[in-house]
Amino acid sequence: MQSKELFSQRFAVFRSEAGVASVLGATCPHLGADLSRGRVCGEHLRCPFHGFEFDRAGRCAAIPSEGRPPPRAQTRSLPVREREGLILAWWDEHGRAPSWEPAALETQGWSTLHTRRFELRAHPLSTSENSVDLAHFSSVHGFEALEVLEPARAEGPYLSARYRFVHRFARLPVENLFRVHLWGLGYSLVENLTPSLGLATRLWVLATPTRPGHMELRVGTSTRTRLAVVEGGEQSPWSPAIRGRSLGRATTELIARFALRTLAADVSADFDIWSHRTHVERPALAKGDGAIALYRRWARQFDVSPEPPANPGPTLHTLRARA
After folding, report:
1. Alpha carbon distance, N-terminus to C-terminus of the chain
2. Taking a C-beta distance cutoff of 8 angstroms, is the pair 164, 147 a contact?
3. Are 272 and 168 within one domain?
4. Residue 92 vs residue 59, higher pLDDT
5. Mean pLDDT over residues 237-261, rounded?
6. How far apart are the C-alpha atoms of 152 and 180, rounded to whole Å?
7. Less crowded by CB within 10 Å, the N or C end of the chain?
8. pLDDT tens digits, 121-153
9. Is it the case that residue 208 has pLDDT exceeding 70?
C-alpha cells in the first residue's frame, strides 16, 4: 500500500490479494478518512474508519452495518496497466477512458528493471522536450559528434527520433546509437546501443506531476542478456533473431545497475535548469536547436499549460516500479 499525491490529489496505490494493482482516490466518500491508511481485504480496500470496502473500480462493495452501501459511496479509480515492471496510470481530468498506450515491449531476454526516484520542481513539458533539444546534449551532458540518423517525427500521441553520439567514460570515447520514444508527456523510453561493446540497454525517464510546479521523476534501466551482433552499424539490436554471446544474469544485472547510475547522473545535470526555467512561448530558436518547434506543436494535444498545472491533460504516468 502506498499513498501518492498525484495531480494535486491524494491516491491509494495497492495490490489486491490476487496481485492486481489498483489506484483509488484516497478520500473515503463516507466521512473523509484516508483510504491509504486502510488495508487490503481480498480484492477490496477497507477504510480504516468505519470499514467500508471499495472494489478496484472505486465502488463501495460492502459495509459492516446492515443494508446496502450508499449509492454515492464511490471514489475515483484510475485506469492502470502493469507491464515491463512498471505500474502505469492514465489521467484525464474529465475521467475519460484511455485512448492510447505505449507499445508493448518484449521482456524475455532482458534484465530486471532497476529504478531511481527523484522529487523536484519541474514541468513534464521541459523534461520531455530534452529528447529533441540537440544543443543541450553537448552543452549540458558533454555528448560529442552528435548526428541525427532519423529526424523527429510525430504521429498522434507518439514522437520518435534517432541519433548517434559519442559519450566519454573515464575519458575514453564510446559511440552510442540512441532511439527516443515519447508517449505523451509522462513516458519516455530510449533504446540505446553501444556497438563497440555489443550492449543494448533500455532507459526510461518517467514524469508524474504531484502538485503545481512539482513532479516525481522516475528513471529506469534494463539490459539485454545477450550481446547484440552489429554488422556495419545497421542490424537492429532489438531483433529476436540476434544470437550474441550470453552475458549471464549476474553480469547483466551489474551492467543495468551501472547504466542506472549513469542515467541518473545525466538526468540530474538538468535539475537546476528545470527548476529555474521560465517557459518562453515564442523562443528565438537557432539552427542547431533540433525539433523543438515540432515537439511543442505535438505537445499541444495534451492540453497542458506551460505554467505549472494542477490538472494536466490526458496522459499516462508511472506510479511505481515493481521489484
Report:
1. 14
2. yes
3. yes
4. 59
5. 78
6. 9
7. C
8. 999 999 999 999 999 999 999 999 999 999 999
9. yes
Domain range spanning residue 6?
2-78
For cell 570515447, what's the residue? 173
> Which positions ≥6 away from 169 have C-beta within 8 Å?
none
What is the number of domains present in the chain? 2
Record the cell numbers describing residue 119, joined without a space. 522529487
Contact 137, 165 (CB under 8 A): yes
- For the beta carbon of residue 244, count every other beta carbon within 10 angstroms: 16
What's the pLDDT at 310? 42
C-alpha cell of 323? 521489484
Same domain for 123 and 72: no
Kindly state the DSSP code that residue 288 receives in the 8-state scheme. G
| Share of residues in the chain with pLDDT > 70 (%) | 89
Q: Taking Cα atoms as reference points, which of 100, 105, 58, 71 lies closest to residue 86?
A: 105
Distance of CA 117 to the CA centre of its chain: 11
pTM value surpassing 0.85: yes
* Other beta carbons within 10 Å of 222: 26
Compute φ and ψ for 178, nearest 5 degrees: -135, 110
Which one-letter DSSP state was computed for residue 269? T
- One DSSP character per residue, 7-67 reads TTEEEEEEE-TT--EEEEESB-TTT--BGGGSEEETTEEE-TTT--EE-TTSBEEE-SSSS
Largest CA distance in the chain: 73
Q: Indicate whether 222 pLDDT > 50.
A: yes
The last residue of a domain, from among 31, 51, 78? 78
